[in-house]
Amino acid sequence: MNADTPYADLSPDLILDAVSACGLWPDGRLLALNSYENRVWQVGLEEAAPVIAKFYRPGRWSDAAIEEEHAFAQELAAEEIPVVAPLDFGGKTLLQHAGYRYALTPRRGGRAPSLESAEQLAWLGRLIARIHAVGARRPFAARGRLDRDSMVAAPVRAALASPLLPPSLHERYRAAADRLDQAIAARLESAGPVRQLRLHGDCHPGNVLWTDQGPHFVDLDDARMGPAVQDLWMLAADQAALESLLDGYTQLRDFDPTELTLIPALRAMRQVHHAGWIASRWHDPAFPAAFPFAAEAGWWQQHVGDLGELAEGLEQG
Predict the structure, then answer these.
(1) Does 34 fall in a domain?
(2) What's the pLDDT at 232?
(3) CA dist 241 to 131, 208, 215, 232, Å?
């Protein structure tokens, strides 16, 4: 398996064989689903509902970290919290076939939530509070945490090492990233100690599906330790939406209002991480096709400017 193109050998036959190895009977229907970090396929089955096969990117997570994610999802499902948990085959959820690690989950459909609806936002807030009640029971041991090293330092190194970042911008980018990192550090320090718990970690609208029975969450691939507010702010388009989320959340769980001061820092960390993530994955053929703008010097010039504005905003309070 080539580290630069880890999915080059992931053929339709290999996917079908991997599902068959679990004792299931694929009918040959495959549908590629939107995923860049991993590869995810809907696989049709004979006389049964389709399953979702997720093939993990080699080298990203250890086996222990993936198994910890699976255990968290199963723990949530056992509390009747609507998340999509992996299927168990002979006591195992993390499976291996032809050098690939993968998991199968049930297919769960749905539509995007209405994030302009105070009622739906409050519902989501209650659901996130239930997730956090379980997440607070014990820490992750293998999945790490949402911190400056993983969200700023590592992505900055990836961008600086990438041919995507024009050499003429290296020093400006480095200076802007350093300034922003210092501003993030100051904001985190000013908030003081904030309780860390197991999070969904990537709680954006694309990871919420709504049905007639209500919402459910998918994709815990970014689950890690962090502050509760991380799972709230990405669903809030404005202050009113955030208040609706918190109205629902606080019906079931206390929320430390100090965490609200972390949102600008968390938003900045995510923006730095996104650019570094693209840079670090550029060798994967899916990335140039999905993010062609990252090959343009103008985009990086704008990104450097954005980092400066984010730092200024944090510095001004």
Answers:
(1) yes
(2) 98
(3) 19, 16, 17, 10
